[in-house]
Design a protein that fits this description.
Elements lengths: L1 H11 L1 H4 L4 E10 L4 E2 L3 E10 L2 E2 L3 E10 L2 E2 L3 E10 L2 E2 L3 E10 L2 E2 L3 E10 L4 E2 L3 E15 L3 E14 L3 E10 L4 E2 L3 E5 L15 E5 L9 H20 L1 H13 L1 H24 L4 H34 L8 H14 L7 H26 L6
Parallel strand pairs: 1-3, 2-4, 3-5, 4-6, 5-7, 6-8, 7-9, 8-10, 9-11, 10-12, 11-13, 12-13, 13-14, 14-15, 14-16, 15-17, 17-18
Length: 373
């Protein structure tokens, strides 16, 4: 937990540290063999190569990072691919597609991405924490523990302490050794005949998949969404009715703009993060984006409920907004759990609501007025 807190605090201080550090941005950033960076290195580019020595931390946001030399302190990599062939004095933090550890890491490795691979030449003196689709330990040595989750796992190296993993499937190689207990959380019983070199000190917990209506989080989410809608209607009743009418005028346009916004805004946030000096701006944009997503879900619920109730009224009388909200919230919480297409329905719900917000605000920007309350 202290390591994780250190990571988040470090990220918040990036913009402040950049003043005293070595900042480099280009198509390729390279610390050549024999060169020394006497401070922290901040790099934003397509490719980063550390063949020499960095006497501080490395913070890199790019496509690929390759460490053939030495980083005396921590390495923070936010990229598609990170490869450590040299030496990192302390912690490695990775977020991206693929990380490959082939060299020496003095502290913990925190890796979150598509694939985490530790090869035969690797030595990790601390712990390995993972959240990945594919975990491959193919040789090497990890002095501490392995904890986290993976879709597919292959263990064929030396682990000094416990292994505690939640995974869908696992295979043990002939060279797998663990100094502590190997504890697995699986969704079904392990077929030991097909699992390879199964260790003697293996513990297995079967985690049965619960239906969404069996989880407290579902009811908590439903309640909080309804309360948010009630507050929106109570505080901005005219706006609520106005935005429903606006949403009905151009359903397709709102959906299209929302879908584009779901792609464009996260890309903009990533670009601002990569530039490093604009990290505070990126955090503000990200916060506003998340708020807009949640508010968009409330608006989608209100629109769906109002549309259904209005369709059932033949006299054209106004719909009770609170009743529409109740029906809409229930539907937007249930429909994403429809088999096979639930994820698409959920995407449409978010995209439509976000699109309504973007187009509605843009409309009033052009008119030079403020949305009514």
């Amino acid at each position: 937990m202290r390591k994780m807190m250190f990571v988040f605090v470090s990220m918040l201080l990036l913009s402040w540290q950049a003043v005293a550090a070595d900042y480099r941005g280009a198509e390729m950033v390279k610390v050549a063999a024999g060169d020394t960076v006497p401070s922290d290195l901040f790099a934003g580019s397509r490719s980063v190569y550390v063949d020499g020595l960095v006497q501080g931390d490395v913070y890199a946001g790019c496509e690929t990072i390759t460490v053939n030399g030495e980083v005396e302190d921590d390495l923070f990599g936010f990229c598609r691919t990170l490869t450590v062939r040299g030496k990192v004095g302390d912690m490695v933090v990775f977020w991206g597609q693929t990380v490959v550890i082939e060299g020496d890491v003095g502290g913990d490795v925190l890796a979150f991405g598509g694939e985490v691979r530790v090869t035969g030449g690797a030595t990790i003196h601390g712990n390995l924490y993972v959240g990945t689709g594919n975990l491959v330990i193919d040789g090497g040595s990890i002095s501490g523990v392995i904890k986290g989750g993976a879709g597919s796992t292959f263990l064929n190296g030396k682990v000094g302490q416990d292994v505690d993993l939640e995974t869908k499937n696992i295979h043990f190689g002939p060279d797998y050794q663990a100094g502590g207990v190997t504890h697995l959380t699986l969704r079904k019983e392990l077929d030991k005949a097909k699992a390879g070199n199964v260790p003697d000190n293996l513990e297995i917990t079967i985690k049965k998949r619960r239906m969404f209506y069996e989880r407290r989080f579902f009811y908590w989410s439903l309640l909080t969404l309804f309360i948010a809608g009630v507050l929106l209607i109570s505080l901005f009743r005219n706006f609520s009715r106005d935005v429903i009418g606006f949403a009905r005028q151009s359903i397709g346009i709102n959906l299209g703009i929302g879908a584009l916004s779901l792609i464009a805004i996260p890309v903009a946030v990533i670009i601002l993060l990569v530039l490093l000096v604009t990290i505070p701006v990126s955090l503000i944009v990200l916060a506003l984006f998340l708020i807009a997503l949640y508010l968009g879900k409330v608006i989608s619920a209100l629109f769906i409920g109002n549309y259904l109730l209005a369709s059932m009224r033949k006299n054209g009388s106004p719909v009770n907004l609170f009743g529409a909200l109740a029906i809409g919230v229930l539907l937007v919480m249930l429909l994403p759990h429809v088999p096979f297409i639930g994820w698409l329905i959920n995407l449409v719900i978010f995209a439509f609501g976000l699109g309504v917000i973007v187009t509605y605000l843009w409309k009033f920007r052009e008119m030079g007025t403020s949305p009514t309350t």
